[in-house]
Amino acid sequence: MVQENLFDINYFYECEGEAYGVNIPEKICECGEKIKDHESVSMLYNLKEEIKIYVDSINKHKLGVFEQDWLITKALLDSLRVCTNIVPFIGAGISVPLGLVNWSEMIGELSISCSENVKGGIQFFLGTNRYLECFDEIISDPQNQLTKDIESIKYKISEMFSFEKIDMERDNNYDDILMSDYPLIMTTNYDEVIDKVGEKYDYKTVIFKNIEDIKSLEKFPSIVHLHGSSSYQDKGSMVVNIDDYKNLYDDPKCMRRLQSLLGNKSILFMGYSLDDYYFMKQLMEICEANSGFSDYYAIMINPNIDILKQRIPEYYEKIKIISINFDDKCSDINKLIVERIRYYMRYINNSLYLRR
Fold first, then answer.
1. Is pLDDT above 90 for 176?
2. Fewest C-beta atoms under 10 Å: which of 36, 202, 208, 347?
């Protein structure tokens, strides 16, 4: 790289107790020797100005600096830069670039043997983001002989999300998130991707309902599966239908545990739609109990702010939306989203070179 003239090099050395700095090693010192022949010579490499300009231009393009809403986005990212106690909260959207199914696709696969009438009801629930009702429709359909109880559904979900089937060569944001050294990461995802990638960064994985002592999480960086895991040994822990959700969120002990985990934390939602009524209701109660002390952010793809205001007015008032806006018809939209989130994370962590 030096030979390609990417760097300016300065040479520093000592001679007869004095320190000197030059940019030509062949230069003759006052003592009569060449600079490079002195015993102790150190070199300082600086990128050439034209290279800095080029890198700055690339980073700004990837970051979206030249887009219409950048000043709003920058203000939000800047506030995250100085925010303490951030907990990334990971939803299904972060796993989608790896080819994993989203909620609608998962329910579509599970309902494949249902009657046309039941499929019509499922489509209605999907259209209103009422995913949990779909599972009861699937189970109660007498024509459906493939998944006749919730245990069968959990087994099917475990198969869908089997880590062995996932192509980890696909670009994704898990390394971008995990290498940021957050002490606590939470997810409602069932899949094991974050756990497997987290092993490289010494993260330990725990199922929320299995936590006995909150303080034990302070001993090591932790990934908490709020709604269980699809791993073979933990598939029974998955919170899937309405009964599962009620069993979790109506349990006072579990909710005190959630309050202890998130009470003084700021949350950054990624790949999360904010449609989870049970969790969001509990989070708003935590927020109210803390008198709005914590900040909540959500990176969302092509959000319709007017619809968000109407559909989730209470959440919208408390959560700061960081928009990523791309054309839905773009063939490489997943690639663009992964890249933009990557550069947002680098910006938040102050690891992105930008000229002022």
1. yes
2. 202
